[in-house]
Amino acid sequence: xxxxKVVRLAHxxxxxxxxxxxxxxxxxxxxxxxxxxxxxxAFIPWPGTGLAFTTDSFVVKPVFFPGGxxxxxxxCGTVNDLAASGAEPKYISAGFxxxxxxxxxxxxxxxxxxxxxxxxxxxxxxxxxxxxxGKGQCDGLFINTSGIGLVEKxxxxxxxxxxxxxxxxxxxxxxxxxxxxxxxxxxxxxxRISSDVAPxxxxxxxxxAECRVHAMRDATRGGIAAVLNEIAVQSGAAIExxxxxxxxxxxxxxxxxxxxxxxxxxxxxxxxxxxxxENEAEKALAVMKKNVYGRSAARIGSVLEAPRGxxxxxTILGSHRIVDMPSGEQLPRIC
Amino acid sequence: xxxxKVVRLAHxxxxxxxxxxxxxxxxxxxxxxxxxxxxxxAFIPWPGTGLAFTTDSFVVKPVFFPGGxxxxxxxCGTVNDLAASGAEPKYISAGFxxxxxxxxxxxxxxxxxxxxxxxxxxxxxxxxxxxxxGKGQCDGLFINTSGIGLVEKxxxxxxxxxxxxxxxxxxxxxxxxxxxxxxxxxxxxxxRISSDVAPxxxxxxxxxAECRVHAMRDATRGGIAAVLNEIAVQSGAAIExxxxxxxxxxxxxxxxxxxxxxxxxxxxxxxxxxxxxENEAEKALAVMKKNVYGRSAARIGSVLEAPRGxxxxxTILGSHRIVDMPSGEQLPRIC
Lengths: 335, 335
Known about the structure:
Two copies of one chain form a homodimer. Chain A is α+β, with helices and mostly antiparallel strands. Chain A has helices at 16-30, 70-84, 104-121, 175-183, 201-210, 223-235, 250-259, 281-289, and strands at 42-44, 50-58, 64-65, 68-69, 88-99, 124-133, 141-151, 165-169, 213-218, 238-242, 272-277, 298-304, 311-314, 320-322.
């Protein structure tokens, strides 16, 4: 079958090819006012109080990696999608698709890891499902988590960033993607990088308690570049990053240099981008730094009027370069 | 690795091996008051009004079969789990795991089928996710749907059946499992059986509007035998079926005879078992027969005091046989 008529790996990368797939296949069919906003969670009108609803499937390979596993990832991913929408995560479901022959011990270890992450986040695993497929019909284990969050305050969307806002992140970039790469034996890394996978709901709600957050989003597939591009487009504004301000750990810098990866495009699982007014930036950073997942919090840029929908990087040498929306993902099956 | 230390296909069949997996691995880890009830949906205390939450992954092979496809199945399965708990299905999510090379045209056809089933059921597809894995890393397409339902009336559980109740079904048994089998080319069936896959929420709510339903559950994996065994155990009662009353279509009877399948154990996707007081049985059947999915509605048995937790069948010849909980599933990847 011709290549342009079938799904390709890059359609799952969270970049512009994923957007194309959604816009070409799913939105024309399913399009409705709830789904069309394309934020991390759906806001559902519900008698009494607002409700956020989200779903995410996890196919990370390998299932265990330094700093986490598919179970912790599945809980944190959904918790963070709810948190990014300004909801308080409350209940999650866990749907397992297991390949015949998968060891019970690994499954138990992954379940325990999910439970620990759920406790840390303060969510209840309320519903589950298990399917088993034959050898070679899936790759070990896939997990879907869907989540329900309570929306008490005004929800946060990706369209609220305004010129003059400061762009903040709670942590250094690129750890998760490189953790998964270094866990894949083929590259023979001796020093393994540990993933940043973490539930960020408490950090997000503490920032929101002190500051008015105009937009926020967790920077997973496609890295910080993808989410900033999404927010620039949704908000109709420009984002300028300063290279000198981007927090990067030494091990990540070294691995990116070696592998030729741009850390702005590497997946994170414990990084949230926050947009707050200039005069609230310092307060927001101070609040984040009190949280275990916010110790490397940093301001990385600003929102400008123009060019609308564009993300640019002011390099250390003073030049500007465009930070495009990634098309696919540098690394498939990162989450 | 020894066979008893790994997941086997039968662990996904919805019978006693699935129960063992859940009781051995998942409940000891995740156990909480919401999850432990093990009904089709979780009841969530929510400010204002009650909320039901459920999740299900679909791995049916092939993805298209007579009478439906994986998309219609994924919507109806979750709609029916919510309906079986006495909730009104409102919102569903759709998580796609797609194998590289899957044709766009098939994906679009499946999405349209989901949309049509959602419209028929009156639910909104509110959230979605797409992951792509490499060739050979999944088998075409897997879909997870999670669902949220509104609980306005008293919820229905599997533990409410009482001696004296009539056991009713809305439709003839075994169509879905045989539809999938006959769609798998290897058996070379010329006459294909069409699946019964259908959203039963309107049928269920119309019965509940007229009668007090003590228990209900949709009879999917493991067939009617599995759900009746679950309800017998949860309710601490006995269920006696009468073979002469079991509604079976001629094509299903013939295929079961040929393949050596017991139709009580074959999966359905449009069959709900209802437990109502004896004096409400006729009314419930009359209500069902007004619905397009209830035309073959029939009473198939009664609830007795003893033997508690057991399901028996009174055969046409007058003897009794035990209808055990299935251990695995006669047919893997039926849903």
